[in-house]
Amino acid sequence: MHGFRKNYPVASEITPESVWQSRRQWLRAAVSAPALLAAGAASAKAAPDTEPFGPKLAATPSQRWSTDETVNRWSDITTYNNFYEFGTGKGDPAENAGRMQLTPWAVQVDGAVRKPLTLDIDALRHLAPMEERIYRLRCVEAWSMVIPWIGYSLSHLLKKAEPTEEARYVVFTTVLQPDVMPGVRQGILNWPYTEGLRMDEAMHPLTLLTFGVYGRELPAQNGAPMRVIIPWKYGFKSAKSLVRIHLQSTPPLTAWMQAAPQEYGFYANVNPAVPHPRWSQETERRIGSGFFASRIPTQPFNGYASEVASLYKGMDLRRNF
Ligand code: MTE
Q1: Looking at ligand 1, which residue's alpha carbon is closest to its atom 3?
Q2: Which of 53, 180, 213, 223 is the most exposed place for a label (fewest CB within 10 A)?
Q3: Rounded CA gap, 3 and 278, in Å?
Q4: Model confidence pLDDT, tens digit, residues 201-232
Q5: Could you tell me the residue ranges of all domains in the chain?
């Protein structure tokens, strides 16, 4: 997010617009087809030339928590990534993250809890019913995508650990495997990547513990085997490949706050009224909408204001950016 961006064109940007339009229509039809929902199949389908791959992950489509906007293609979602451990170019994670060691994988839930837990990924996958939720993801870099994630509300896991009264903040820690992470060897951030939420944000049903995308287990570049997604916040809050979830009484100093506190605040709620010090946050580019598509207005809380604005009642969101 810091500037060292390689110029990596996404596949969709080099696809002629006409091909694109028909794909968009195809996707729209697939996503809104009620028959698909009724059949319990994943409601999001990729265009045929970008068929998702990898182990399947069953989930029940959630209408309650899904947007009906056109979903991005599998290839957009899996080749245009931020995962700085694997490099700062948008194509670096797809190229390098496959070397991440994913088995065995355990996640620790500890700190201000009555029942500290260490669960392996299989136990985590079975802890609560999987839902498919189509969320908007808005990156602080002013682009966005619409992504069919699979997971369940983080609150299910947190409740299992029985948070104490001291638990006012949650800290997420990403796996650290320097041997296969060129970005870690370069510095860039204070590794491991850490992020955090206030407890009420973490317990909000929209906060998704995420195991899959497009009916498949998460590809490495999207944060396999498990990450968090907070759809009303800038994408950097949604930490990938988690190994630890720590509850504590004080606000954490996250990796991005350490790197550039004037640019990346703790809250990071999507807010078109508060520009990033180096660029506006008023509009966004929807990845895959074609090179000449016009930018779209960014919505407060990324369009989730009716669900989450009340969490910030009385707060000055310019100061708490
Ligand atoms: N998690 C880790 N561990 N490392 C990262 O560099 N980048 C963040 C977030 N989670 C990042 C991370 C940013 S800036 C964004 S926009 C999203 O992941 C991108 O998620 P995606 O690549 O699955 O779309």
Answers
A1: 240
A2: 53
A3: 11
A4: 999 999 999 999 999 999 999 999 999 999 99
A5: 11-312
